[in-house]
Amino acid sequence: MKPFDKNTKILIVGLGVIGGSYARALSRQGYRVRCITKEQKDIDYALSLGMIEKGSTEVTKETVEWADLVVFALYPHIFVEWIKQYQHLFRRGTLITDVTGVKSRIVDEVQGILRPDVEFIAAHPMAGRESSGVEYSDDRVFVGANYIITPTERNTPEAIEVCHRLGEILGFARITQLSPEEHDRMIAFLSQLTHCIAVTLMTANDTPMLEQYTGDSFRDLTRIAKINDVMWSELFLLNREALLAEMDAFADEFDRFRTMLREEDGEGMRDVMRRATARRMLFDKPKANQ
Q: Which backbone phi and psi does 175 adopt, to 5 degrees?
């Protein structure tokens, strides 16, 4: 494995909103970036803005062999199928990473089938947008955000360090490590449950013309209900047990709050609100210069 420096050649597979944001950040800092993606129009868009130096809609030996580091920004099942079909094209010593939102099953499967002379170090950028497509990519979403590396016993210290360096280059404020299993338990609460709440809140009341009366609190709470149904349903099913456990815990907590309201326990509700306010302050993004 080569050291990660300005000579590192980076291939992004899947030039959507996250893949495109990686391309913007890396090209802006002088790294050589190419891509493989489905649509020529997305390649043309990225070329016009200098996000990549070259792109292809076909998986070719020349394109894959060129890269030292390959970033996969694909739906989980497509990522696995890509590895099965095309891993023979990797050059010996290639390092690959991903942006996948669920780790345990994906990491285990990919590392289990991957050639021994190619290493997969998994990572999850905790940033994104509710809109999909490269035209919505924006590397500013990484500033102040969290980046989680999920190594296993199959990973080398050198690969973990390269992945950590990639997070720094992209601009993430906090870079941490969890096992794939720890990651999935955490993500079930921090990301997947919140999307479930936003989606069901939008479908819980179908009174016409509510959008004419809403305030910012409802808009803020339901922003992520504008959701990619294909991707998120797959992520939920891949992390089914952990997500169900968090949904049950949330339902229990909501029921306790409901009981306080029914029993007119104002002080109990205020205590929950005070604790919620104090904890919420811990989740504010750090300033960019911190």
A: -120, 120
Structure tokens at 24: 């913007």
pLDDT digits (tens, 9 = 90+) for 27-61: 999 999 999 999 999 999 999 999 999 999 999 99
pLDDT band, very low/low/confident/very high, at 288 (cuts 50, 70, 90)? low
* Closest alpha carbon to 43 in 85, 1, 15: 15
Q: Are strands 123-126 and 119-120 parallel, antiparallel or unpaired?
A: unpaired
Residue 135 to residue 131: CA distance in whole angstroms: 9
Q: Residues 152, 131: contact at Cβ < 8 Å?
A: no
**Cα dist from 166 to 142, 163, 256, 269, 279, whole Å:** 12, 5, 43, 44, 30
**Centroid of chain to Cα 29:** 21
Cα separation, 13 vs 7, in Å, equals: 19
| Amino acid present at 268 | G
Classify 76 as helix, strand or coil: helix
Q: What is the spatial distance between Cα 180 and Cα 238, in angstroms, rounded to a whole number?
A: 13
* pTM metric for this prediction: 0.90
Q: Tell me the angle at which helices 240-262 and 194-203 cross, rounded to the nearest 10 degrees.
A: 60
One-letter amino acid of 6: K
Token pair in block for residue 34: 């190419």
Query: Per the structure block, which two tokens stand in for 258?
Result: 């409901």
Token representation of residue 67 = 């890269």
